[in-house]
Amino acid sequence: MVKAVRFSRFGGPEVLEIVDLPDPHPGPGQVRIAVRAAGVSPSDWKKREGLMDGKLPQTMGYEAAGVVDELGEDVAAVAVGDRVFGFSDEGAAQAELAVLSYSAPSPSSLGFPGAAALPAAIETATRALDQLGVGSGSTLLINGASGGVGSAAVQLAVVGGARVIGTASPANHEYLRSLGAEPVAYGKGLVERVRALAPDGVDVALDVAGSGVLPELIELTGGPGHVVTIADFAGAQEHGVRFSSGDAGRAVHALAEIGGLIESGRFTLLVAQTFPLAEIAEAHRASEHGHVRGKLVLLVG
Question: What does the pLDDT look like over 53-71, one tens digit per residue?
């Protein structure tokens, strides 16, 4: 049996439990890891509240890092004992053992918490930037630029040659500058503040925060076709903006590509706070509170 996070009813963080479940085993093309760290994402608390998936009970966690301890069929590039990070398609990564459907070698300069912080942030950011067509010479506005996905998108866009303007609270402005972005405060007057930096507006915009600013992003880019949101499904439907989710195909190539950027010093993702697995409820409270700079990570084993 393996200890894992699960909930059997929807509600607040108090519904989360650590339970014993049967050991998982990898299928073809998959690997199983002894989990050392697992990422916590905003989608976790949305699942827990019943906003994303109606089935019960549910396990938790889509990203983890650890040591390979069992191989599925047709796995040749990885060996037992390798340190890897990746995705759990089953959503059961917040556990002592997890099956990864997509994995890559952990960057050598990172510990397990740093590697576990990567998968969702870099995949989501890469997918959204690809959908927006961000490239050299683009001017990109990111709403909510200091969190895990936002800061990943800033750095990946900058590496690709884009100019990045990012919204954040004033306390995070210097952090955004360190990543290569030009910071602006969010809230009323956003359009005017962005136009002060980019008088002709911006080419494209990515909404990470879901704070009801899609009309302003549409105004700044010149149309809904230049805006992608990963956080405002209702607003996307209302305003004709593309809502980016992994359902249409994920940018899993980002896992294999990020190591080189990290080792060359061109990409970093902060681990904002770590929690023991037993304190999963506290991790959810921190995530739900918002305004996290970087990524929340559970320590396992």
Answer: 889 999 999 999 999 999 9
Residue 133 clears pLDDT 90, i.e. is over it: yes
Shared domain check, 109 and 129: no
Q: What is the pLDDT of residues 230-250, one digit of tens each?
A: 999 999 999 999 999 877 678
Domain residue limits at 7: 2-117+270-299
Is the domain of 29 the same as that of 78?
Answer: yes
Q: What's the pLDDT band for 51 if we cut at 50, 70, 90? A: confident
pTM: 0.93
**Is 286:292 a contact under the CB 8 Å cutoff?**
yes
Which helix (H) or strand (E) element contains residue 275?
Answer: strand 271-276
Residues 108 and 138 in one domain: no
Q: What residue spans of the chain are helical by DSSP H?
A: 42-48, 112-116, 118-132, 148-159, 173-179, 190-197, 214-221, 233-239, 253-263, 280-289
DSSP 174-225: HHHHHHT-EEE--STTHHHHHHHH-TT--SEEEESS-SS-HHHHHHHHTSGG
- Per the structure, how many domains does the chain have? 2
| Cβ-count burial 26-35 (b if 16+ within 10 Å, e if not) | beeebbbbbb
Residue 265 lies in a domain: no
Question: Does 135 share its domain with 241?
Answer: yes
Q: Could you give phi then psi for residue 150, rounded to 5 degrees?
A: -60, -50
Pair (243, 133) in one structural domain: yes
pLDDT at 43: 86
